[in-house]
């Protein structure tokens, strides 16, 4: 996610590829009968196999939502696990139709790499975790003056850390590790006072610590990592479908439409709900998108609304127990805001 | 002629005396092997202390304290972590391995189709076992079945799409299945190809020699990781849109060619050890090139380099884990992937999963190694020491 070298490589690759992105991804997808979706090889809460080998996670569920919008079946999707290095090539070469792999939305990727980001399915950012037993009373990163901090080398995480402490005139000792496993083990054995990586990662790491309840994730977020699904530039119709699938998930949560009550909601008196669910007379919202008018019904039936997806995979319904925070709806103090469906 | 009185000549052999107490029995063995010099004694004591420290801990972790059953992570957690084990508990979370065992063996191969993999495995063992046992009859037929027919049967069974078997794309394959497929193809291709390349490199025909040298040196000069990476990263960019190459096929070709180049050099080492007289002897019998090589030279040369050949096989078996680079999940890859399952995230999961993967690799490598030592002893007819 964070290595300039990879970006340069990717950009070079794209120079070769600029002409390949073909129009008509939706037609291709309909013809082959499934969406080919690029996901992370393994990331807790975002894309990981369950006991039966099925893919689960927030990024995975977004792929299923897109498949459901098109086919009415969240299982008409095939997953291509991609490493950080080959994800952009896979999208540009047409190996995948959609990249839903915790990818940070940056201008460089939007322009030079030729991607179109459809939205932000998860607002992540670099944070800190400390051992509350070892450092009692620390409840802000600004109190970490003089602390030793475990960090993975060669990532922007390391740079952000340096910038943050310098900007706040704080002293710190970076304890740098090549591999994330080494950093985890060092932190767990008490070699550092604090651990820094993306917040979603901190919650996942906390599960593997010897005494998870002793460790707290501090509220400060020192970098912006808006993660979202992306598609190739040059196919606006497909881009619209992915983008509005994301908005439909948010709108459903805003209107209280859930996997369980979506059928009852079709009889709702509210004109807004009727419009979103495509039961308004002579509606053309779905067909204008290139889908059926009940596309939102299909999405919510397959995966639930955004809140349900969040809670199931990373929130209170999962072992990660990540609070909604920035990912709450705008009406509840978060940043998730859907454009109106009308 | 003088007659001898032979009454003092013994008519029966003297029975051997028992060895002196200082040279026989338990005590002597100990003195000779463990406490011969002060340094030996010190090392022995140190080693025993290290074992006494480590073995109980390992046994305790792997067996006595281990958690064998459970449906999710809570089975392998201490009270402080939200489970039921006492604080400070440390034991293997075998429940994780048993919940994920199907994936570790077959990857995402559809559950209702897994009998095909198992059947292939049974065929594999049934054909391989008699091939490995020297006394078993019909070696020729067996070899033809194993190396000639079995690959096709296995292909039809595993890939499917014929005779009513549903097609299973290779991106769903994983776990031990991928490890074994890669190794089998690598071994079956690399030995004959390696022999041909080795002969080519020692050939007197310039073109054949040059091509062999170029192939061997090019392949040996590039790391396997690079080739796999290029195959997955660059190949799709040069291919026309919509054309995708099967990832498993890319890996198979890469691994097989790599093993062949290394095998060629091992075999060449054996060829160099054969004295010139053997070649001349074969020539003087009027044998042609292939007869000479097949009947006189190769049997001796290959026998000499069995350790090198098996070394290459074992190295290749472990190199298959590199396919993780191209997002294929061999045994190690799928174990690591499942470590990301938040439902099993515990402090013990990673250790247990990796120990399991290591143990499976060890079983295969160790059996290959033991079998090669057995074959060496059996074939070591000329130079037995």
From TrEMBL, chain A:
| Keywords assigned | Signal, Transport
Q: Where is the Solute-binding protein family 3/N-terminal domain?
A: 34-265
Q: Which InterPro entries match?
A: Bact_solute-bind_prot3, SBP_3_CS, Solute-binding_3/MltF_N
> Which GO annotations describe the biological process of this protein?
amino acid transport
What span is annotated as the signal peptide, if there is one? 1-23
Q: What Pfam families is this protein classified in?
A: SBP_bac_3
Please give the start and end residues of each transmembrane region: none
Family the entry assigns: Belongs to the bacterial solute-binding protein 3 family.
Q: What is this protein called?
A: Amino acid ABC transporter substrate-binding protein
Q: Per its UniProt entry, which superkingdom is the organism in?
A: Bacteria
Known PANTHER family for this protein?
Answer: AMINO ACID ABC TRANSPORTER PERMEASE (PTHR30085), AMINO-ACID ABC TRANSPORTER-BINDING PROTEIN YHDW-RELATED (PTHR30085:SF7)
Q: Does the keyword Metal-binding apply?
A: no
Provide the species name.
Answer: Pseudaminobacter soli
Q: Does the keyword Heme apply?
A: no
TrEMBL record, chain B:
In the bilayer, the protein is annotated as:
Multi-pass membrane protein
Entry keyword set = Cell membrane, Membrane, Transmembrane, Transmembrane helix, Transport
Q: What Gene Ontology terms for biological process does this UniProt record contain?
A: amino acid transport
The UniProt entry, under Pfam families, shows: BPD_transp_1
- GO CC term, one of those recorded: ATP-binding cassette (ABC) transporter complex
Q: Which GO terms describe its molecular function?
A: transmembrane transporter activity
InterPro entries given for it? AA_ABC_transptr_permease_3TM, ArtM/GltK/GlnP/TcyL/YhdX-like, MetI-like, MetI-like_sf
Tell where it localizes: Cell inner membrane; Cell membrane
**Top-level division of the source organism's lineage:** Bacteria
| Record field: transmembrane | 41-64, 115-133, 145-167, 173-198, 210-236, 248-267, 301-329, 349-368
Q: Which residues form the ABC transmembrane type-1 domain?
A: 176-367
Similarity comment text for this entry = Belongs to the binding-protein-dependent transport system permease family. HisMQ subfamily.
The family database entries (PANTHER family) matched by this protein are listed as: INNER MEMBRANE AMINO-ACID ABC TRANSPORTER PERMEASE PROTEIN YHDY, MEMBRANE COMPONENT OF AMINO ACID ABC TRANSPORTER
Name by which UniProt lists this protein: Amino acid ABC transporter permease
- Source organism per entry reads Pseudaminobacter soli
What lineage is this protein's organism placed in? Bacteria, Pseudomonadati, Pseudomonadota, Alphaproteobacteria, Hyphomicrobiales
